[in-house]
Amino acid sequence: MSPLIRPRAPGATRRDPVPARSPRPRLAGAGALLSGGLLAGAFGYGAVNVLYAFREVPLDVRFTFHTALMQVNGFVMQSLMGLTIVSCAVLAVRASGRQRWTAGAAAALAFSSFLITRFGNVPINQHIKRWAIEGPPADYAEMLGRWEAFHFARTGCALLAFALIVLLTIPHFTEKGTRP
Questions:
Q1: pLDDT per residue over 110-138, tens digit each?
Q2: On the CB side of 110, how many CA atoms lie within 13 Å of its CA?
Q3: What b-and-e string marks burial along 122-149, b requiring 16 or more CB atoms within 10 Å of the CB?
């Protein structure tokens, strides 16, 4: 007999060890963690590196590069936002209690980053596309400032969503009544 298995006392009922977590929430959590991390990382890289590089180059270079970048980013970032929203929502459905609310909040934050992008950044991107050809209007600096504010807001939403999913993957957070 294994030293880890102790015989039961006569008349004692059998108790199962701590039930194993279902693989479905784990798989959903892995998907949410991966897509959320990629989304937060991409937005974060843009906020820390690309945005500041944009400020250092002449406007015609910035507008041309911004337009080219948005053509590629349109598909990539929308896909990442969609994957993050769906994977966090699936995790919320498959989880229970506090984990469900946490995953739901992450899905809502990812959806917020989509809304900010769609109704904040994208309309300004359309203006920038024209500026690359026609030149900027007199209030271009204000519009670029608004684009940056929207970008920081969507980056913050994505980072918070990722942080919530990270919390869900820490075993002590998901086990009721335990603290690290």
A1: 999 999 999 999 999 999 999 999 999 99
A2: 32
A3: eebbeebbebbeeebeeeeeebbeebbe
